[in-house]
Amino acid sequence: MILASAALMLTAPLPAQAVELVMIERDGCAYCDRWNAEIAPIYPKTPEGAFAPLRRLDVKERPDDIEFASRPVLTPTFVLVDEGRELMRIEGYGGDDLFWSMLSVILRDYTEFDVDAQIETTPDTDHTDATPTQ
Q1: Domain count of the chain?
Q2: Does residue 6 belong to any structural domain of this protein?
Q3: Would you indicate the residue range of the signal peptide (predicted)?
Q4: 48 located within any domain
Q5: pTM of the prediction?
Q6: pLDDT, tens digit only, all 134 positions of the chain
Q7: Does 9 fall in a domain?
């Protein structure tokens, strides 16, 4: 009985965070791969990542716990979600500077994100670590 309960817990969908950044991606997406190389390693260590943790979905997935404004088609698409409802999205990936700028704007405009408060509680907040050395 305990194993059955544990198995159910592992397969049940996780409830949506209050605020999360949902990345819509697909296999073979070159821009998704580029985001994964340039941003993914640092994102959870940033104030933005602490405030809006990343959740990944394949473009074919249709989760019951997110109400999208429209069906995401382009990959990558980054959807800012609050309590299961889309607030705003970033479609595509045009490099790390553009991504951080756009994310900062939508967090500022659509949430209670306070970068100063987040910096006090988040180590390693320097976005420059996201750019790979050549």
Answers
A1: 1
A2: no
A3: 1-18
A4: yes
A5: 0.77
A6: 444 444 433 334 444 458 999 999 999 999 999 999 999 999 999 999 999 999 999 999 999 999 999 999 999 999 999 999 999 999 999 999 999 999 999 999 999 998 777 666 655 555 655 444 34
A7: no
Read off the CATH number of the domain in which 23 is found. 3.40.30.10
Q: Which domain holds residue 110?
A: 14-130
DSSP one-letter string for the chain: -HHHHHHHHHHSPPPPPSEEEEEEE-TT-HHHHHHHHHTTTTGGGSHHHHHS-EEEEETT---TT-B-SS---SSSEEEEEETTEEEEEEES---HHHHHHHHHHHHHHHS---HHHHHHH-S---GGGGSPP-
Nearest Cα to Cα of residue 30 among 38, 41, 19: 38
Structural domain includes residue 68:
yes
